[in-house]
Every structure is written in C-alpha cells, then in structure tokens.
Design goal:
about 270 residues, about 10% strand, alpha/beta
Length: about 270
C-alpha cells in the first residue's frame, strides 16, 4: 500500500493550520506549535492518521462497498473528482443536496429522471417537441447532470463518507452520523473533530495538501479493489476445480465397474 511520509506532507503544506484566534480547542492534541499567529499541525500524527484511514478504506473497498467523496470548495473540486473517478467511486463537488443520505430514495428518483430523459431523447420521443420545450428539457438534464451525475451509479447508501473540510460540509457529516455511516475527514485546526470517525489532521484549504492525502487514500482503495478481484478469481477457479472433480468421479466409478465385470463373468466359467 502506498504510504505517506513526513516529507511528502511537509512539501505539500499539510502542516499549515488556521489563525490561532480561529482555532477549535478540540484540535489541541494535533497541534505542534504556533508560528506568526498560525497554528502548525503535528505531521507525525497526521502520518499515523492517514495510514489508519487508508487501511480502513482498503477494507471497505475489498468488501465491494462504495465510499462517497465530498468536497465543494472551489480549489479542491478537481482533485476530488479526479481521485474518486480513478477508483470508480461516487463524489459530490457541487452543492450538497440536503437529505441526500437521509432522504436517499428521493435523490434516486432524480437520478432516474435523468436516465429517463436520456432514454426518451434517444428513442425519438422528444422529436415532436417545440424548440422551447426541448431547450427546457435540455437545461433540466444539464442541471441534474451537474449536481447528480457523479452519483448516478450509487444505487444504495454509501458505506463510508470521505469529507474534505468537515466544517464546510457539516450537513453531510450530520446526515452520515444520523445513519451510522463512518466518516473519514481532513480536519483543519478550526474544525470540530468529535463527529469524525477517522480524523486526518491537515490543511484542508490547499490543493496540494488535499491531493497528497487523497492520493494515499485512493491508492489504498485501489489496492482493496484489486484484492477483491483476486479473491473472486480464486473463488471461480476453486468452483471450476470442484465441478471438474464432481464430473470426473462418476467416470472413475463407471470405469471401475467395467473392470470388475469381466472378472465376475470369468468366475462361473472356471467352475
């Protein structure tokens, strides 16, 4: 598994926290010192926490479960989308749709609506509509794609949430807490870590900081997916082998019976 190290985090600026006056006292265990009025995060602890989170994410992926990546900050959107896509996981980088987890069936209906529009456009149903009506439908489709396109394959609730900036995405965190979904979060010095199951203390504003942490976590997810593939291949091979053995067994029995038959027939002739 690709592991982070102290130097990688340092170069990416993961150690820069927020202004001292904006700090959350609950983050005190993860603060190393203060410099020019800015808190410095203890990267030795960050390394440990990234490895813990990566191991847990790997296990979730190995079980074939989905991890939803969330981060709507302008500077980190592209990184989140890129890393989540690389491991075929859903993500939210636009506005968090309230009730996305707690009212998941309604969100699924909106996703199905998007699929229905595509279907009707392809089969020519919309061919007789006026330009104005077609434009309205196209705009509606584009809006749905922008907000929900990245979760189109999420057919059931995710098994985990990975959040960048838990303070900004507090609604997503609350929904996950309410449903008992574990939350992995990059937590800065101004945030409250109490509702986060896997805390990664680090700078959540800088693109480089988020990228280096996501790279390590997504590498672990990819490893978990590969192990799942290997396990499935082994299972199939074992099944095929057991079927071959089952088929070969009656043949061996028939062959043994044929060999016994002439011996039995020869016995009366000897008498």
């Amino acid at each position: 598994m690709a592991r982070t190290n102290f130097d990688m985090l340092l170069q990416a600026g993961c150690h820069f926290g927020h202004l001292k006056r904006k700090w959350n006292p609950a983050m005190a265990p993860y603060i190393y010192s203060e410099r020019n009025g800015i808190h410095i995060i203890d990267l030795h602890k960050t390394v440990v926490k990234v490895d813990e989170a990566a191991e847990a994410l790997k296990n979730i992926a190995r079980q074939g479960k989905k991890i939803l990546f969330v981060g709507t900050k302008k500077q980190t959107k592209e990184v989140i989308a890129e890393k989540a896509t690389s491991v075929n996981m859903p993500y939210v980088i636009e506005r968090w749709p309230g009730g996305m987890l707690t009212n998941f069936p309604t969100i699924r209906k909106a996703v199905k609506k998007m699929a229905n529009i595509d279907k009707l456009m392809q089969d020519g149903t919309y061919g007789n509509l006026s330009k104005r009506e077609l434009l309205q439908i196209t705009r509606q489709r584009a809006k749905l794609e922008k907000n929900l396109g990245s979760i189109a394959d999420l057919t059931r609730l995710p098994s985990a949430l990975f959040v960048v900036d838990v303070m900004k995405e507090n609604i997503a965190v609350k929904e996950a807490n309410r449903l008992g979904i574990p939350v992995f979060g990059i937590v800065d010095t101004n945030s409250d870590p109490k509702n986060i199951d896997y805390i990664i203390p680090a700078n959540d504003d800088a693109k480089d900081s988020v990228e280096v942490i996501l790279a390590a976590c997504c590498a672990a997810v990819a490893e978990g997916l590969e192990e799942r593939k290997a396990e499935k291949a082994d299972e199939k091979a074992a099944e095929a082998q057991s079927e071959e053995v089952a088929e070969a067994k009656p043949k061996r029995v028939r062959k043994a019976r044929k060999e016994e038959a002439p011996a039995e027939e020869a016995a009366p002739a000897a008498e």
